[in-house]
Design a protein that fits this description.
- The protein has helices at 19-24, 28-42; strands at residues 13-15, 50-52, 60-67, 70-77, 84-92.
- The chain is an alpha+beta fold.
- It has one domain: RelE-like (YaeB-like fold).
- A five-stranded mixed β-sheet has the order 1-5-4-3-2.
- The longest helix is centred in the middle third of the chain and has 15 residues, at 28-42.
- It is globular.
- The protein starts with 12 loop residues before the first strand and ends in a 13-residue tail after the last strand.
Length: 105
């Protein structure tokens, strides 16, 4: 269910590229946790699972959720006044799932 309008103090949330579609493909439990973290950000707070994203300037955060042996991440920014941008949502691949260049055949 979607709310028809924002409440006072709530920042709008904008999705960049495929970030929304990618997040919606995550397992329900992961979507719930990341959605909660984004809701906290919309009201100017920082969820306990939101950590500063390494290598970026202040205001860019990453939420990491583990589920059944897989890791899911969402990256968002609050760097711009009055808005939250979701930049990326993805499943982190384990090293065993990556193919080394020597194995490309």
């Amino acid at each position: 269910m979607t709310r028809p309008k924002r409440v006072p103090g709530e920042k709008p949330l904008f999705w960049i590229g495929r970030s929304k579609d990618d997040l919606l493909a995550f397992p329900e439990a992961v979507k719930d946790e990341i959605g909660t973290a984004l809701s906290v950000a919309k009201f100017g707070g920082k969820h306990p699972h939101a950590k500063p994203w390494k290598g970026e300037r202040p205001g860019v955060f990453e939420v990491v959720e583990d589920h059944r042996g897989d890791t899911y991440r969402a990256v968002y920014t609050v760097r711009f006044e009055g808005v939250v941008y979701v930049l990326h949502a993805f499943q982190k691949k384990s090293p065993s799932e990556l193919v080394a260049p020597n194995d490309w055949g």
